[in-house]
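Sample entry (350 residues):
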Amino acid sequence: MLKIFTSFLFKTPLHILYWVLVWLFFYLFFSTGSNNPQFLFWFTSILSVISIITSYVFAYNLIPNYLLTKKYWSFLLYTIYAIIFTLFGVLITVVFGFVFFFNLEFQNMPALTKSSSVILVCVFLIIVLASGYKILSHNYKSIEEKKTIENKFLQTQLQLKEQELKFLKMQIHPHFLFNTLNTLYGFTLKKSDTAPDMILKLSNLLDYILYQVDKPSVLLKNEILHIHDYISLEKMRFQESLQVNFIKNLYNDTIQIPPMLLLPFIENAFKHGTQIDGVLQIDIDLKTTEDFLIFHIKNTSKQATTTKKGIGLENIQKRLEMLYKNQANLSIKPEANQFIIDLKIPLKNG
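Predicted structure, serialized as tokens:
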């Protein structure tokens, strides 16, 4: 125990400064009505030692080992022991001055040094201040440690989310390429003259997928350009059996969105859409305001196929949850001969 006291006493100058101030307080307070500086020095020093011992017992033993660990009965018991020690120490201090400095003449002692209650109040005040500081310091450290743990937990969650998001993007890419290459394969079998143009558009799409999709965001107008390339590829495949209406109303040209956010919806409409009366009808309406992106897509579809969402659409739902949490509104409505998707997300302008 003495080693602990010594360690904490000399570990920091703040401890020494605090107890020097306590000693000065005792000296000045009990000097009222006294003309014996030698008595005041020893009287103040003994009280300071009692205060130091009791304060450190509370601050570094009773409070952390019993009070903060909710061992209240043990804390109460040891507190009673500490109070008894303090009472005994104060009594010995008064007797010491009474015997050695005033020759058993009690009336000659300074008034404040004769009052045990006043002495006890001063000593307990110092003990309470030291213990209170220890409790406040512990609470502050606990809050800081809690914040540190929470920050580490959030960082871990963020890293997991980023890894999951990358995995979802990797799932989108092969699925998208599979559908597009199937289209190109059909044209090469026919030895169509439009195959080179298809290859060029596919090349642009590959560049977008391989080099742009890892960015946190891209310009909305770039996403729209690749949507046009994809629609052009599908028009070459469907010819007269495809009708696409794409309406755009953009707030400005600096709007940014996560890459490959809208394109999978377009892909899903082509993959799972079906021809009604020999025509696949797809209606796309894209609108942006200052704060939101509003996307509507509708394709003809038979009731039997409306339950198939496809890998891409499922991944988009997961991405929306990760990117926007509860701020994104996605509605998927299978209706008679139609499959309708409505999306509304908050956005930031560049």
